[in-house]
Each structure stands twice: as structure tokens, then as C-alpha cells.
């Protein structure tokens, strides 16, 4: 009976501090400021309300600019919320609808050329996770010669790249063969590079997708 009571207590706690919500997400992001300037989702809870900047992320949601979304999300109260951050975590339950915007025009923003971009987040088992600063991969695009290069963590790598508007194609990736103690991120990073086929540049973030799935996110340094 004691174990049963504990499980019931945990279930009660979960329901008491969580809430299902409907979010409407705009077809473009808006300028927002945190540690630095970036872009945030624009969200509202009712169709007739104005959009507001949404500084929290939605776990499991891969946003594509140019579409209006209606989402079902779960809001869960944090046990120890930071003093300068949101008191809640948000998780995607279901994409109720995704409709292409009639008023949106695609902004074909070019990827920075001959600049080193550091990886900040990587998809692991379908979930975007922050990258350890001690093993941060990076990438540089040589668009004139159709080449990429960088460091995958332990080894240097190189490959070919081509573009077609917002589409990106990476092939012929090779690397040096140094052996390191932890090769997990490096192996996953190189695997994702050859899988991406679409990019999106939002503010100072370069995101690489496989169709609708976000695989890699890089930070674009300030000029």
C-alpha cells in the first residue's frame, strides 16, 4: 500500500503542476533580446489575440518559417525556476494544423562565407541538446569552390557542398583518423552533416534540417 500511495502522489503532483494548452504560432519570428539579440517565436493562445514574443522553447517542436501552426502543448511548472527565466517548460503534444502563409515571402538569406561557425545544439535520439564547450565542432563554407571544412571535435574534416535556394547538399565527407577518448558527438555530427537537405538562417543562428527535422544548429559570430 505504501508503494501505491507514492505512485498516486507522483501522478497527482504531475497533473497539479502541468496544463494542456493551445498555441497559435506565427509564420515569422520576431526580434528578441536575452544574452544577445536573437529571434523568438511569436505565439498567442486565442485566434483573435495579437501575437506576443515567446522566450521559452517548445520541446519537440521543429519550427519552419512561412507556416502558421496550431499546436497542443503541455506546460509544466519547474521545480526550481531561475530568477531571470521562465517558470515553466513547454512540450509539444501534437501539431493540430500547419498551413502555408499566403502573405509570407521566402527570405533567401545566404550562409556566411569563409567564416567558422560553432555548433551549439545537436539532435540526439530526436531531441536537440546543447554541445559541451570542450568538444565543440565547427564548420566553414567555401561557397566559391563548393567546399566545407572544420573540426568535428577530435578530427578535422572536409567535404563538398552545393545550394539551391534554401536547399543544401553535403557529400564526400572525409576526416583525419586521430583516436580520442570520446567520439560520440563527432560520429553523430558527421552522420548528420551528410543527412541534411535544408537550411534556415534566423538571426545569428544557422539551422540545418533533414526535411522537417532539425539536426544541427550553429551560432553565427557577430561581424
Q: Helices and strands in order, then pairings?
A:
Elements: H1 2-16, E1 18-25, E2 30-33, E3 37-44, E4 52-54, E5 58-59, E6 67-77, E7 88-100, E8 117-124, E9 127-130, E10 138-142, E11 147-151, E12 156-164, E13 167-175, H2 184-193, E14 198-202, E15 205-210, E16 213-219
Unreliable runs, pLDDT <50, ≥5 residues?
A: 1-13
Instruction: Give the percentage of residues in beta strands.
Output: over 45%
Write down the secondary-structure element order.
HEEEEEEEEEEEEEHEEE
Q: What is the C-alpha radius of gyration, as a whole number of Å?
A: 20 Å
Return the average pLDDT rounded to an integer: 84
Largest sheet: 9 strands, antiparallel
Helical/strand content category: mainly beta
**Total strands:** 16
Percentage of helical residues? Answer: 10-25%
> Tally the helices: what do you get?
2
Core attributes:
single chain; 223 residues; nine-stranded antiparallel sheet; seven-stranded mixed sheet; 2 helices
Description of the structure:
With 223 residues, this protein is mainly β. Helix content is 11%, strand content 48%. It contains 2 helices and 16 strands. The strands form 2 sheets. Strands 8, 9, 10, 11, 12, 13, 14, 15 and 16 form a 9-stranded antiparallel sheet that branches. Strands 1, 2, 3, 4, 5, 6 and 7 form a 7-stranded mixed sheet that branches. Strand 11 and strand 12 form a beta hairpin. The longest helix has 15 residues. It is globular, with a radius of gyration of 20 Å. The termini are far apart. The N terminus is likely disordered.
Amino acid at each position: 500500500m505504501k508503494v501505491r500511495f507514492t505512485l498516486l502522489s507522483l501522478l497527482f503532483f504531475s497533473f497539479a503542476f502541468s496544463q494542456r494548452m493551445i498555441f497559435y504560432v506565427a509564420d515569422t519570428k520576431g526580434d528578441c533580446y536575452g544574452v544577445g539579440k536573437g529571434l523568438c517565436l511569436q505565439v498567442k493562445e486565442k485566434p483573435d489575440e495579437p501575437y506576443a514574443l515567446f522566450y521559452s522553447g517548445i520541446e519537440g517542436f521543429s519550427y519552419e518559417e512561412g507556416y502558421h501552426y496550431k499546436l497542443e502543448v503541455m506546460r509544466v511548472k519547474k521545480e526550481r525556476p531561475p530568477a531571470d527565466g521562465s517558470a515553466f517548460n513547454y512540450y509539444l503534444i501534437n501539431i493540430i494544423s500547419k498551413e502555408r502563409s499566403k502573405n509570407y515571402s521566402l527570405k533567401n538569406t545566404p550562409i556566411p562565407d569563409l567564416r567558422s561557425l560553432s555548433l551549439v545544439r545537436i539532435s540526439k535520439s530526436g531531441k536537440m541538446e546543447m554541445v559541451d564547450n570542450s568538444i565543440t565542432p565547427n564548420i566553414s563554407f567555401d561557397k566559391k569552390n563548393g567546399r566545407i571544412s572544420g573540426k568535428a571535435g577530435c578530427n578535422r574534416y572536409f567535404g563538398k557542398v552545393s545550394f539551391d535556394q534554401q536547399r543544401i547538399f553535403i557529400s564526400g565527407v572525409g576526416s583525419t583518423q586521430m583516436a580520442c577518448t570520446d567520439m560520440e558527438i563527432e560520429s553523430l555530427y558527421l552522420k548528420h552533416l551528410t543527412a541534411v537537405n535544408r537550411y534556415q538562417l534566423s538571426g545569428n543562428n544557422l539551422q540545418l534540417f533533414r526535411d522537417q527535422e532539425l539536426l544541427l544548429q550553429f551560432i553565427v559570430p557577430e561581424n
